[in-house]
Amino acid sequence: MKLAGLKSVENAHEESIWAVTWVPATDSRPALLLTGSLDETVKLWRPDELVCEGTNTGHCLGVVSVAAHPSGVIAASSSLDSFVRVFDVDTNATISTLEAPPSEVWNMQFDPKGTILAVAGGGSASVKLWDTATWQLIATLTVPRPEGSSKPSDKSGSGKFVLSVAWSSDGRRLACGSMDGMISIFDVARAKFLHHLEGHFMPVRSLVYSPVDPRVLFSASDDGHLHMYDSEGKSLVGTMSGHSSWVLSVDASPDGGAIATGSSDRTVRLWDVGMRAAVQTMSNHGDQVWGVAFRPPGGTGVRVGRLASVSDDKSISLYDYS
After folding, report:
1. What are phi and psi of 97, to 5 degrees?
2. What is the DSSP letter of 122?
3. How many other C-beta atoms are found inside a 10 Å radius of the C-beta of residue 9?
4. Residues of the chain whose pLDDT is less than 50?
5. Under DSSP, is residue 151 helix (H, G, I), strand (E, B) or coil?
6. Helix residue ranges, H only, the chain
7. pTM for the predicted model, two decimal places
8. pLDDT of residue 155
9. How far is CA 322 from CA 32, 68, 171, 297, 300, in A?
10. Residues forming a β-bridge with 84
11. Distance (Å, rounded) from C-alpha 294 to C-alpha 316?
């Protein structure tokens, strides 16, 4: 796989762009790109020309995460204002507003079937699970302290700040990454904590499971490394290094053969999973790269793969690969 720069849009938002995801294609339209910014807005973009299709307002602080339902019909945005806004992609009508205490809404992701929205709970040291049929809170998965650690001195119970979440491809497992570098794995059906994955010692801001192997989990950390875990066997399978600063985001290609990362070293890197090595570095951005996202498969007439990246420099870049 090789990336080829397709298009970049400067000043796509008025402030830093912190979040990006693809809204899957529907019968009536192609996949759309969804971005969230410190300027408090969420924007939808056409996938080829990067023409803005719509701007969603409603948050009163910066947008830290965006997530798209697998149906492509609804999406969600979370903000520093501690609200999650769920909306209809095509009409922008608000479907639900989920409220949390301050600093308890961070990264979020819909499960593969679209029945649950998982929200990283920040200072609550937990992941909240919301039913997408009723928008009621159905479970709170609390991250326990590792055995042998000292008693917590703060009120959050475990002293953990949960930044990131990821669903396994079969929807059975949920992983969350914390400020202290620990990754926690949960059995979703039983709402039960299973185990920690160790190896990082700085914040884990982004996680993604392999789309082809529900055991394989990739993590991006401020320690500059990318880890590949057997999440069931609790083992670190590989460490990939190359970024010169924090790794802020990670995503896996639809075929599971490659992963992309964005870093505060201002680059996007493409990694070959089999070789466990970086095969390409893209330097389109002039500031930290907060988000990378591969376009999901599907859609009429789609012949090539596509990757998007967003940055503190307020720009969006698109890359093709085949």
Report:
1. -125, 120
2. B
3. 18
4. 152-157
5. coil
6. none
7. 0.94
8. 45
9. 19, 24, 28, 13, 17
10. 78, 98
11. 13
Cα separation, 148 vs 152, in Å, equals 12
User: Two tokens at 155?
Assistant: 């009120």
d(CA 257, CA 219) in angstroms, rounded, equals: 16
List, for residues 211-247, the tens digit of each pLDDT value: 999 999 999 999 999 999 999 999 999 999 999 999 9
177 touches 206 (CB < 8 A): yes
Residue with tokens 């949390």: 100
pLDDT, residue 1, reads: 87
* CA separation for the pair 120, 251 (Å, rounded): 17
Only one residue has tokens 């990283």, namely 120
Taking the C-alpha atoms of residue 296 and residue 304, their distance in angstroms, rounded to an integer, is: 11
Residue type, 220: A
The pair of three-digit structure tokens given for residue 86, joined into one six-digit string: 């769920």
Chain Cα centroid distance, residue 97: 20
Residue 267 token pair:
């680059």
Going by C-alpha positions, the residue among 236, 281, 275 that lies closest to residue 257 is 275
